[in-house]
Design a protein that fits this description.
The protein is of the alpha/beta class and about 210 residues long. About 45% of the residues lie in helices and about 15% in strands. It has helices at about 10-25, 35-40, 45-55, 70-80, 95-100, 140-145, 155-170, 195-214; strands spanning about 30-35, 65, 85-90, 110-115, 125, 130-135, 150, 175, 190-195. Helix 1 (about 10-25) packs across helix 4 and helix 2 (about 35-40) packs across helix 3. The structure holds 1,4-dihydronicotinamide adenine dinucleotide (NAI). The site of 1,4-dihydronicotinamide adenine dinucleotide (NAI) has 25 residues, from helix 5, strand 4, helix 7 and helix 8.
Amino acid sequence: MPKNSNISNPVIRRLPRYYRFLGELAKQGISKISSRELSEKMKLTASQIRQDLNCFGGFGQQGYGYNVAELRCEIGKILGVDKGRKAILIGAGNLGTALAMHINFEKSGCKLVGIFDSNKSIENNPLGDLTITDISKLEEFCKKHNPEIAVLCIPKSATKDIVDRLIALNIRCFWNFSHYDINIDYGNIIVENVHLGDSLLTLSYGVNNLLSEE
Ligand code: NAI
C-alpha cells in the first residue's frame, strides 16, 4: 500500500464516510458495487469517487466495480482502524462521560485505557470499563502504559497546562473538544478539533437560506 501522507485533507475527510457506507452495504449482503451506484448512495459524483480511491492506488476493476469487503478493508487499513492505539481521556464531566460511554473507540483504531479528572470527589468512580484516576497520577500512568492519544474534555482554561504535560509525556495526538486552540508551535503533533457548535452554525446557515427563500 502506498504511503498516505500526501493525501489531501478533503479526501481524508471523506474516507470515514466511505468506510461507514461500505460497512452498511456489507451488512445488507451487497458484495459488489459500481462507482455509479456508490455515488448515488453517497451523493457524490462517480468521478469524485474514482478520483478519491485512485489516491490510494484505486481498488476497482473496469467493468466490475468494487468488491465491497475488500474496499472497506483497504480503507480501514488506511484509516488505521486495526491499530488499537492506546488513548486516555482527560475530563470526566458531562462531555467526557458521554464520550466514554457512547463512542466505540476500538472501532476507530483506539483503545481507551485511562480516564483522568481533577475532581477528587469522583476519583475511583467507575466510567464504562474503567475507573476515574486523579490527574495527579497522569505522569505515573503514562510512563507505565505509554498512551499515544489524548481526548480532551476539559475547560479551555485548564487545557494549555494539560497539553504541556501530555507533550512532555510524548503524547502527540489530540482529539480536542476543549475550546483551546492547541498551538502548532509544539511541532510534530496532530490535532483533530471538534466543535459541535460549528456544525450547528453550518446548519443555521442552511436554515437561513432555506427559510428566507419562502
Ligand atoms: P464539565 O464541567 O461537566 O466537565 C469538565 C471536567 O473537567 C470536570 O469533571 C472537571 O473536574 C474536569 N477538569 C477541569 N480541569 C481539569 C484538569 N486540569 N485536569 C483534569 N480534569 C479537569 O464540562 P463539560 O460539559 O463536560 O465540557 C467540557 C469542556 O468541553 C468545556 O470546556 C466545554 O466548553 C467543552 N465543550 C465542547 C464541545 C465541543 O463541541 N467541542 C461541546 C460541549 C462542551
